[in-house]
Amino acid sequence: MKACAGWRRFLFCFPLVFILPHLFSVLELHQNQAVTDAPKENTQKFDVQNSSVGGGNDAPKKATKKFDHLVLGPAAGEGLPNRLQCQGVKALNKTHFSNPAHASGVGDGIAFVTVFTIYNNSPDSTVNSRLSNLVTVGNASYSKPERSMAIMNVFINFIQMRMPQSNVIILTDPESDLSLRQNRVTVLPIQGEYSRDKLMLQRIRSYITFLEIRLEKLSQDQGHITHFIFTDSDIVVIDDLGQIFEQYQDFHLALTFRNNRDQPLNSGFIAVRGTHDGILRAKKIIEKVLEVYSFRYMKASRMLGDQLALFWVVKSDPSFDAKGFSKAQAFTKEIGGATVLFLPCATYNWTPPEGAGQFHGMPLDVKVVHFKGSRKRLMLEAWNYFSSSTDISDMLCLILKSGRTKYDF
Ligand SMILES: *[C@@H]1O[C@H](CO)[C@@H](O)[C@H](O)[C@H]1NC(C)=O
Ligand SMILES: *[C@@H]1O[C@H](CO)[C@@H](O)[C@H](O)[C@H]1NC(C)=O
Ligand SMILES: *[C@@H]1O[C@H](CO)[C@@H](O)[C@H](O)[C@H]1NC(C)=O
Known about the structure:
The protein is α/β, with parallel strands linked by helices. The chain has one domain: Spore Coat Polysaccharide Biosynthesis Protein SpsA, Chain A. Helix content is 34%, strand content 17%. The chain is built from twelve helices and 16 strands. The chain has helices spanning 6-13, 23-32, 127-132, 144-162, 199-220, 242-247, 276-297, 305-315, 345-348, 352-358, 376-389, 392-402; strands at residues 51-53, 70-72, 86-87, 90-91, 110-115, 135-137, 140-142, 167-172, 185-189, 227-231, 235-237, 253-257, 265-272, 331-335, 338-344, 368-370. An eight-stranded mixed β-sheet has the order 9-8-5-10-13-12-15-14, sandwiched between helices. The longest helix is centred in the middle third of the chain and has 22 residues, at 199-220. Bound molecules: 2-acetamido-2-deoxy-beta-D-glucopyranose (3 copies).
């Protein structure tokens, strides 16, 4: 394991630096730990040197180098009928997304919930070190602390564009002075221990506290139902996710899966039906995950635990059958007293690094792209590209083609 590389250096080698080691940084660790998060894929090597967009013509010397500008490679899934086909960064297929203006009636009853915190003591805040650490995407430059905030902003931008009726709720440490004044965005401080090594554990606790608050609210105001989607903040919402709650009427909790033996579930996307029953049963499962995490996985890794615990809870149920994970098709199962909907990552949690290989390209109906690991720059580049092209399908080509590139951002 190379110490102090990329985002890990960001996290561990300069632990006091004013950074926002939010969950997206955390997920980088999933990938780099001895137990890897990314399913093994064909690690077919290819030349990523061909085209580069957005500055810098210096051809990389090694494929392992982390890039500070957008680098495009071949698009996975070429020739496959149900996969996005691209010519350069132009999409040959126009994907059929719902028009945000006519989104499902459910849309106005959806809230995205994410955990985000700011760590405040910054020896890095001097003007000089600030300038030396600037990175540039499009016409904007970001210092280290600004990068995480930029990711959060892009997360919000896409949600507001694709699901304009939905809300974003940011659960945060009361100590962190996160100020975000924006329509349909709520910052909700929740007491807890948000130190880096406890962050994943705290995230589950914050989810539970949040669901308790909702239960309370719901008992006061019977009328209004809001469904919740708990996510990492390094995801981009591509299509109306309110449809999940219409299309699958009877689940309490939805998780995303992929065909990976050790870690088929990703904890970065958890949908909860906002009825009293839905919240209650989902909360029970998440409480169980917390218990298993605390009991079994505290030592496994300070970052990986929640995902392992989630899978442990699912696989410990007598009804569990791993076969369901082998096909990228949604299915439901009764787990721990709740109806759990399993949604394929290929559509609901597509990730650039493994998605290009494991999922054989990008499905035409992809709904969520997750910029795990060293793809943070690509998330900002995608927004930047979209801002000028305003074509979602073309932007997806850019993501697909750049998906195997590791960025140092
Ligand atoms: C780059 O890609 C173009 C078209 O995709 C191809 O014609 C060209 O030969 C490639 N160049 C290199 C150096 O691989
Ligand atoms: C996507 O575009 C390619 C190239 O134009 C075409 O061959 C393919 O049939 C299209 N796929 C769908 C599902 O429309
Ligand atoms: C930077 O780009 C954005 C979007 O492309 C644009 O709205 C903005 O005006 C630009 N800012 C400057 C200083 O050029």
